[in-house]
Each structure stands twice: as structure tokens, then as C-alpha cells.
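Team,

Forwarding the record for the chain on the shared tracking sheet. I've put the sequence and predicted structure together so nobody has to dig through attachments.
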Amino acid sequence: MADLTAKKRNEVSEDSHYGELPTTDEANSTAERGQKILQNMGIKLDGKIKFPDSKNNKADYIYIPATGNVSDIQEIKKDLFQNWFSSNPPLLVISVICGEEDHNMNDELKRELRNALYQLAENRGII
């Protein structure tokens, strides 16, 4: 699996950062730049989802408000894949769209969402 991931990274266009491992300074600078972009867009770094029946499968998630500018969102997606995930790209990216202005979920809804995402990842052979 690791060889396949490395091969896919090498197939990405030359202007991409997938094939290079960032130095500590580059990673710190990219992370700081990313944090500023996220803050300016009103994006909340919400943490991790721990999937049921799994000790190692955790997923990072972020909240992007409905008021987010589409071009800003496209820029952060580009940044995520070219810089933030350069050494360890995700196997699965899921976008969840909600009509709520504020994304606060009760425990039951969080559980249902987590279980649905787990089922999706399991069906795709990711976990």
C-alpha cells in the first residue's frame, strides 16, 4: 500500500509538492500560513472523530461556514493537498454539507454522523 501511495505521489504534476518531504522550517511556515488562511475564512479546526471499534482510525475535521468564499475554499483545498498532506496524503476526503448556520450537533447526531462516515470508509476499503 505504501508503494502504491508513493507511486501515485510521483505521478502528480511537477509543480505539486507531493513528491517532496517538507523541511521543518517549511512545514512550520506552511502550517502558520494555513492557520492564517483558515482564521481569515472563519474556519474552525474542530478536532478528531474517533471511529467505533477502532484504536487507530481517527479523522481530522474542519468546519467551513456557509458564508465562506468559494475561491477561498478552493485555495485552502489546493493548499491542503499540495503542502499540508505532502508527506502523508489522506486516503479519503469527505465533504459534509449542512443547512445549519451553526454546526453544533447533539450527541446522537454526532454518533450517527460518525457511524455513517465509518461505514463509508469501511465500504471503500479504507479501514
